[in-house]
Specification:
Length: about 160
């Protein structure tokens, strides 16, 4: 979905489950920290605003987006009480194919981990062409992908609880 057509932080057309009983980990890439810090704040604030207790939100950092998959796997293996893991990162297109390899590996890896553990692992990784596009999606004119990741986690936890 194009961010130009939708604000990432507009949830006026949907019902958001109350997260008062949920336990959620947020894993944040330290690479592009000025962007990922804002994504984290958006996710954290959205979880709290929708009932998740601060004591039930667990924050972890990893060096880069590539390490998000390993962290998600470790968390769901060792902290089985978690209801979901939100993975936040930002990989800005560069001059080499490194961007493609990282983005594909992370997207595929997180999907596989979610499927294997039968718990939501949310892909909150920005993949913009420019730093400005990242800024616009980390609390700028297009909202905050961190908000979207948190709401996605709440909705998927709820779905997992009713099926």
């Amino acid at each position: 979905m194009s961010s130009k057509l939708k604000n990432l932080s507009d949830f006026s057309n949907t019902t958001i489950p109350n997260g008062k009983k949920y336990k959620v980990a947020i894993v944040v890439s330290e690479w592009n920290a000025k962007i990922t810090d804002k994504l984290y704040q958006g996710a954290f604030n959205s979880l709290v605003a929708n009932g998740v207790k601060e004591k039930n939100i667990f924050n972890y950092t990893v060096p880069g987006s590539y390490e998000l998959t390993t962290a998600a796997e470790m968390l769901l293996t060792k902290k089985t009480e978690l209801d979901a893991v939100i993975c936040l990162g930002c990989v800005i297109q560069g001059e080499t194919k490194h961007f493609d390899f990282i983005c594909n590996a992370v997207a595929n890896g997180l999907t596989q981990i979610s499927t294997n553990h039968k718990k939501p692992v949310v892909f909150g990784v920005l993949t913009p062409n420019t730093e400005q596009q990242a800024i616009d999606r980390a609390g700028g004119k297009h909202g905050n992908k961190g908000d979207e990741a948190a709401i996605t986690a709440l909705k998927m936890i709820y779905l997992n609880s009713i099926i």
